User: What shape does this take?
Amino acid sequence: MSKKTLYVHFRSKDAIIGAIIDEIGATIRTRMDVVLSDPKLTFTQKLCGLNEVVGSNLAKASPGMLHDLQRFAPALYQKIDDVRQRNVPHVFGRLIRAGIAEGMVRPEIDPGFAVEFWLQAMRGLTHPTALDRTQLSPSQTLEKAIKLFFGGLLTAAGHRDYEKHSAACEKRSAS
Assistant: This one.
């Protein structure tokens, strides 16, 4: 496709990148809805699914790319945050409530607070300066954050079940 034809559909490079960001956000949400709606999957399998779906998409975003967007295209960087703010409460809220219902997440956990905590943690941890400090990729950050966060939420049964499934999750994530 020629540039001229491309610019008939998009008014600028930023518009193209914005459309890509929107599409990635919609794809993540759709794929997560499929995982979360599968009655055959346990909570920990859904958690592994979250790690796989989001992690595979975060793998496409390098810390350098995020830094450049933040510096040179702040509206596009904000668009990423807007997508995150729409998706995290929906997806993560469903996951936390499913975990409570299955007895894998402590029942006294407030799902609304847990979701907000996760959203703010991910906003901070995937910020380009935080990625520079930790020397982690966005997908590595997600994996470490999930382990840390859910280590404090899971019941003893949830820990046992997660450990049983986490080896398989890590194997799939590595490939």
Observations:
- The radius of gyration is 17 Å.
